[in-house]
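Input set for joint prediction.
Command: fold jointly, output tokens.
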Amino acid sequence: MADFRMPSLGADMEAGTLVEWLVKPGDRVKHGDIVAIVETQKGAIEIETFQAGEIERILIDVKTKVPVGTVLARIRTADEAKPGAGEAVPQPPAPPAAAPPVVPAKIVAAPSIMVPAGAARVRASPAARKLAAEHGLDLAAVAGSGPEGAITHADVERSLAVGPAPEMKRAPGIDLDAMRLAIAAAMARSKREIPHYYLAHEVDVTGCEAWLAQQNATLPPDRRLLLGALALKATAIAARRFPAFNGFYRDGRYEPSPSIHVGVAIAIRGGGLAAPALHDVDQLPVDALMSRMRDLVQRTRLGRIRSSEISDPTITVSSLGERGVEVLYGVIYPPQVAIIGFGKVVARPWVVDGSVGPRSIVTITLSADHRVSDGHGGALFLSEIGKLLQQPERL
Amino acid sequence: MSQPSQPGTVETTYRDAVREAIREALHRDPAVFLMGEDVGRYGGCYAVSKGLLAEFGPDRIRDTPLSESGFTGAGIGAAMAGMRPIVELMTVNFSLLALDQILNTAATIRHMSGNQFGVPLVIRMATGAGRQVAAQHSHSLEGWYAHIPGIKVLAPATLEDARGMLWTALEQPDPVLIFENVMLYNMTGRLAADAGAVEIDKAAVRRAGRDISLITYGGSLWKTLEAAAALAGDKIEAEVIDLRSLRPLDDAAIMASVAKTRRAVIVDEGWRSGSLSAEIGMRIVEQAFWELDAPIRRVCSAEVPIPYPRHLEEAAIPQVPRIVAAAKAALGRE
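tokens >
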């Protein structure tokens, strides 16, 4: 028997509300199946199971808010299934391209690691907790002014006074106010805890543009490739070579990640921001990466992100694209240790082979955690991304 | 306690206010009499009953032997037999010699007699430190008495209460203990010329404020008010609650104040461990936990026998700077 638990979808998540069950007792599930939808500050998240088997029992009703780690359902694992049943044969292992076995272990273990650590627990007065609960406000987003920085009743009142009417701009599955609070909490924590250093590097992507034009000439519009896909792929390959930028800083130590799941910063209409992961980007062909990226952007904007996508990016890429500015310096999403920024591609006079000519230039930036890496390594990492982009056909 | 001179008021002391209360009671009801060590010829060890022997005679102002248990027991018997005795015990320290009578007899008779008998007895005693009379005369044990069901425990802190609580206490059908802080006897101020009985079942807001509740009683009230004035200089509006009655406690007044200010400091001259302040703090947690914005703090006496040397005695009991510091800490403004 396996427990299907409320996952932790980020270091600041303490609880989630179960909004929908997509399975019922008796249903068979396999690794990666979406079994439930959980409402968090980041929107409605589709929760996958990492356990194959048969849903034995559902323990939590919909519309119930439960702490991270709460058992939501019990799954009779494949090898426990009744003898004689046709499908009792153990499920074949998941294809290697899917999430490696390390992922379920990490998600299930998360609550037991995070809860007793206590560092993440918000210090708030009972009066503040009561008022915040009455208004559904997450205390993680409130700055405390009380003894030892505790959040007081007045702090919550201030916070509530600042917040605009929430019903106006609520898109299905996304509560933008809650999302803003979650962003506020995560970014405040990042700037408080992570000693950032910043590097910038200008890269000539004329070759990439030419290669993309050539590829796209024969492709229907919905399959055309964008520079963003090359940027993700180049970042992922460079991250494989520089493991100090791909992993998590937790409990006072750095754990490099063996997999490279690149978080893609996606702006949500109305003002939110999410950075769900594309898994194993270093191993994906560029066209597959492009279609996954399209799918991810679309689902994110609809508020349908999957639990594994929101909880396990190992590094983040933020790109403001053509509507943006030339240089952007990101804020690291904890517990990650680096974020890569891609600015707008601009036409610049550039020296190539001793003569000046117009070239397409993009400024790539790195914001990295100084507890884990130094500027020297950061510079090598950035310039590696630049080098990889010089040979788009090999990405 | 200096107030501007007002028409219809008289300048008086806490000591005189208590004496007036006793005189009034003696005049009002022939069943009332005062007894205790040195209350007659000597005029009371704090001079409260000075002159009463001459005015009322030895039947009603009765000197007793040094036998707290004996004359407290006699007071209980007299009360059960229809009299309204006022028993004076020199200090709360000596009252422990009469604790058996107070706890095992006076407080229990109504229950043990199946409501056939009550003990309408008033016991007055001095409490508190600050007069350099060393450990055996300086403790604040009123919190121990507030532990006992079956009695009422009063702590008059103002001239009005010193003047008015006694008669109300004498009207009670069950024992009432009145604790007079030794540092208050010389306190002077103006009191209404026609001041009389006051209620004894409500706490009083002695200073209104919105930022923190300072909960206290008796001799600590004036230090707490001084602390509140100092806090006002730092833009902290402290509310000062004078409990007046230690048993029963006016929970409603305490909770109303804490619900408003969301923070509480309890100032209690008793020792911290197992004290009245512990009881009040726990009641706040039980009844107003969700209103709190900060841990409840206490300013109590050092857990030592109260020392004789002045500087050590002052250091041992609550003082204004410690109250101010505790309030600021509760507000996160250390």
